[in-house]
TrEMBL record:
UniProt keyword terms in alphabetical order: Cell cycle, Cell division, Cell membrane, Cell shape, Cell wall biogenesis/degradation, Glycosyltransferase, Membrane, Peptidoglycan synthesis, Transferase, Transmembrane, Transmembrane helix
Protein's UniProt name: Probable peptidoglycan glycosyltransferase FtsW
Reactions mediated catalytically: [GlcNAc-(1->4)-Mur2Ac(oyl-L-Ala-gamma-D-Glu-L-Lys-D-Ala-D-Ala)](n)-di-trans,octa-cis-undecaprenyl diphosphate + beta-D-GlcNAc-(1->4)-Mur2Ac(oyl-L-Ala-gamma-D-Glu-L-Lys-D-Ala-D-Ala)-di-trans,octa-cis-undecaprenyl diphosphate = [GlcNAc-(1->4)-Mur2Ac(oyl-L-Ala-gamma-D-Glu-L-Lys-D-Ala-D-Ala)](n+1)-di-trans,octa-cis-undecaprenyl diphosphate + di-trans,octa-cis-undecaprenyl diphosphate + H(+)
Enzyme class: transferase
Signal peptide: none
Family: Belongs to the SEDS family. FtsW subfamily.
Record-annotated membrane-spanning stretches: 21-42, 62-80, 87-105, 125-141, 153-170, 176-193, 198-215, 274-300, 312-335, 347-368
Pfam families in the record: FTSW_RODA_SPOVE (PF01098)
Length: 389
């Protein structure tokens, strides 16, 4: 037997890749950690001035982050099909909370959005945007091929979205109303509804939104302020002007951690909806690109989870959850940078707010379970996408 010295053993190439569930998990953990850092640095002056405690807001946010991550881990282990059994109790409970907040909710700046329970504030609209996702996924799967018909295809799912949107709008919360409307629209589109009918709804939605802005003086004022915030920079344009000042002063590399000037009682509640401006001021363009990149990575990973889900129900859930995060992130960053009129939408995982953080992390747990089951389904060789009714 001759031995060929020139014959070389083939080396196995190691393929390095990140599973979709790992991608989602890593992005979420990083965003939560960045959020905690930003909540602390942006709220320190305000917390000391208003509460007499430098750590007031970061302690609350850290507590909710720990609880939320615990629930994310729990829901990542719960079969998402099991959750489907609670669709209608979730619908009824959420509708009940939306009505309750209008009756006994805490009013802040003319809007009723919070219910005080044992010293904790619950914002039902944060639950509503995900409740709509679960309800629509269930209903659309039940409809089957009927979703494609012109007559009945979109009436039922649109009606469901409209009920929740109207109740949230009654709280004077146009921003979350828009989120619910857009999530409903795109979930119906992904489900395969007639595209011509859906395209015909765009001008209707645009006109409806315009009417809602015109009939409310404060919304109309926000629109005119958006067009020229410097015209009334001491009043209606104050928040946006100081946001733009923070972004401009941050430059490419930022002023450094803790060195924001706008958080020093110039910008009202900088740890809330305008926290991205403090990120820009302290960490500059590079910090903003990094955070936006994390959101893009999370959304791409989540889309791939949806594409590889084991059934239609899982796919629709993943699409809806992804839409909620993506739409909120886009609206928030657009508002802070002056790209669209000012409206109150928190930046997911980063803005302060216990209800928002907890609910978002629970949704990520469901998304991780969809990814886990989709991965197992591929390993088992069951590549067919099944409809579970």
């Amino acid at each position: 037997m001759k031995y060929n010295k020139n014959k070389k053993k083939k080396k196995k190439k190691t393929k390095i890749s990140i599973d979709r569930d790992n991608g989602v998990y890593v992005a979420v953990i990083l965003l939560v950690l960045i959020g905690l850092l930003l909540v602390f640095t942006s709220s320190s002056y305000y917390a000391l001035y208003e509460q007499g405690d430098l750590y007031f807001f970061i302690k609350k946010q850290a507590m909710w982050a720990i609880i939320g991550l615990g629930f994310m881990s729990l829901f990542a282990r719960v079969d998402y099909h099991f959750l489907r059994k609670f669709t209608w109790p979730l619908a009824g409970g959420t509708l009940g909370l939306l009505v309750l907040v209008l009756a006994i909710g805490k009013e802040i700046n003319g809007a009723k959005r919070w219910i005080e329970v044992g010293g904790l504030s619950i914002q039902p609209s944060e639950i509503a945007k995900y409740a709509v996702v679960f309800i629509l996924a269930h209903v659309i799967v039940k409809m089957g091929k009927e979703i494609k018909t012109i007559k009945n295809g979109i009436f039922l799912p649109l009606s469901i979205g409209a009920i929740f949107a109207v109740l949230v709008l009654a709280e004077k919360n146009l921003s979350i109303t828009v989120v619910i409307a857009m999530v409903t629209y795109f979930m119906i589109m992904v489900a395969g509804a007639n595209i011509r009918v859906l395209l015909g709804l765009i001008p209707v939605g645009f006109l409806g939104g315009l009417v809602l802005i015109i009939i409310e003086p404060y919304r109309l004022e926000r629109l005119t302020t958006y067009l020229n915030p410097w015209a009334d920079q001491s009043d209606s344009g104050y928040q946006l002007v100081h946001s733009l000042m923070a972004i401009g002063s941050g430059g490419v590399t930022g002023q450094g951690l803790g060195n924001s000037m706008q958080k020093a009682l110039y910008m009202p509640e900088p740890h809330n909806d305008f926290i991205f401006a403090i990120l820009a001021e302290e960490f500059g363009l590079l910090g903003c690109i990094f955070v936006i990149g994390l959101f893009v990575f999370l959304i791409i990973s989540a889309i791939k989870v949806a594409m590889q889900a084991k059934d239609i129900y899982g796919r629709l859930l993943a699409v809806g959850i992804t839409l909620v995060i993506a739409i909120q992130a886009i609206i928030n960053i657009s508002v802070v940078t002056g790209s669209i009129p000012v409206t109150g939408v928190p930046l997911p995982f980063i803005s302060t707010g216990g209800t928002s953080l907890l609910i978002n992390l629970v949704a990520m747990g469901v998304l991780l379970n969809i990814a886990k089951q989709g991965k197992k389904n591929r390993i088992d060789g069951e590549d067919n996408l099944r409809v579970i009714r």
